[in-house]
Amino acid sequence: MGQTMKVPCVILRGGTSKGIYLKAADLPKNNCERDDLICKIFGSPDVRQIDGLGGADPLTSKCAIIGPPSRPDADVDYTFGQVSITAKYIDYSGNCGNISAGVGPFAIDEGLVTATEGVTRVRIHNTNTGKIIVAEVPTVAGKAAVTGEHVIAGVPGTGAKIMLDYSDTAGAVTGKLLPTGNSTDVLVVEGFGQVVASIVDAANVVIFVRAKDIGLTGIETPKELGSRPDMLNLLEKIRGTAAVKIGMAKNLEDALQRIPAFPMLAFVSPATDYQDFTTGQIIKAAEMDFVSRLMFMQVMHKTYAGTGTICTGVAAKIPGTVVNELASASNKPVIKFGHPAGIIEVEVATEKRESNLVLTRAAMSRTARRIMDGNVYVGR
């Protein structure tokens, strides 16, 4: 037996994240053995992930496990794992929309899905949520297209435009679009007091609060917020309190100690001019409906999570939410909001069926690119 073992893998950028894509057939069937192997592939736990492929950043410590479909209305199964950097732990409690953008191209290029010329529709069963995501992937000569003119904020250059429709993902985690049944709830946060929040479950659960209610402007940069441990602690307490309220954690201590990636938390504010923290360019208020900042694994997301994008767009359409109150274009089919590195768009359509609000369209555009493929070597 050799001192190391090799595992086939692909490193692929999906949207504004980067992940390691693995085939289920190449991993142990036992979940504990599988997770142990994946942590070794990433080099976790280690703050630099120096002995693995992880990039020591929450946006690059992501894993996609792809396999044959387990249900007849899907083309592939896809399991997302957020690999902890500092602990031997993988969070499977939610999905990542950016990493989802790479699943269709991966499935096509690996021969798991037969391409059709022009655009190939890939029905992706996300096992984390039990929901179907439909990816519309541009294809050329039987492979996923890479080059194109589409631009997404937070990624240099251009690429082929991939559309992802999440309209099947209402109640993805909790079973309800509004987990508490309310557009807003008052959370009692330890050491702070009351704060008004909207808890929405579409693609993933996100807790939304007004920036002004917690002493923020709403246009803070990741570095600015990262230098305020008191505010990071408050935001995490708000997230933990909401997680307990909707049954995603047993108690606040459980919510804080396990340090899961989900639910996420966002603080929203009115549209205003501010600087793109990556380029220094001014992002204009006139080009957006509102501003949002997303917390992910206890740090501010440098752009915006894909599933968080869907949930934020959907929240803007739900009457009475703190997002809807700020969304100047909540009656339009496309919601545009600002994040630290630009503006993102999400197509949202809803309709009332009896007394329920039903999602009929919840789509965003992404690009994706295969960066490398081959084998990763890990110690036995």
UniProtKB/TrEMBL annotation:
GO MF, any single term: methylitaconate delta-isomerase activity
InterPro entries named in the record: PrpF-like
Keywords: Isomerase
One of the Pfam families matching this protein, by short name: PrpF
Recorded superkingdom: Bacteria
The enzyme's E.C. designation: 5.3.3.6
PANTHER family: ACONITATE ISOMERASE-RELATED (PTHR43709), DUF453 DOMAIN PROTEIN (AFU_ORTHOLOGUE AFUA_6G00360) (PTHR43709:SF2)
The family this protein is said to belong to: Belongs to the PrpF family.
Name of the protein in its database record: 3-methylitaconate isomerase
Organism: Sporomusa acidovorans (strain ATCC 49682 / DSM 3132 / Mol)
